[in-house]
Input
Amino acid sequence: MDYMETIRSRYSCKRYCDRQISKEQLDAILEAGRVAPTAKNTQEHRVYVVQSAEGIAKVDSVTPCRYGAPTVLVVTYDKTQAFVYPGNVYNSGAEDATIVATQMILAARAVGVDSCWVNRFNPDEVSKALDLPENEVVVMIMDLGFAADGFEPLPNHFNRKPLEETVRYI
Ligand SMILES: Cc1cc2nc3c(=O)[nH]c(=O)nc-3n(C[C@H](O)[C@H](O)[C@H](O)COP(=O)(O)O)c2cc1C
Output
């Protein structure tokens, strides 16, 4: 699958079957995050892989948006390690973690794994439930798995603004 086909065919999967993703698929997804750029190459992101029944139950206690996915990634950044721009006004941690997550979610599509980006949670509750280090900020949760039989992309997926509405040439 070429890159444009990958990004065009990704959609948010909101109903999964029980089949677990393979180790090869998971490794490819994690590798896509590993090679992501970060400001000053600080690589302060952290990725937690949740697959155990206990971990999944903890995820379910903090978000209604797992949708049955058998694998969940939790992406955070270490706020003490993120590059802070001169003047101390801008911490690049959230950007870095978002780039990592984006590369991983597109890689998931490339290796045939369905996904959903989730931010419907209270970051502090996630940290507490998963016992994450205090200096880490939770940015997103990524559901990973395979769509349940009959699940189709929601209508929203096909609704994108034309470039004229979002791009200006200056
Ligand atoms: C930053 C972000 C946060 C999102 N949070 C949630 C969420 O908490 N729960 C959910 O079901 N979908 C969530 N989504 C999925 C969006 O609803 C979805 O991407 C959007 O409607 C477009 O549909 P598509 O991904 O199928 O193209 C999120 C997507 C993004 C980019």
The mean pLDDT is 97.
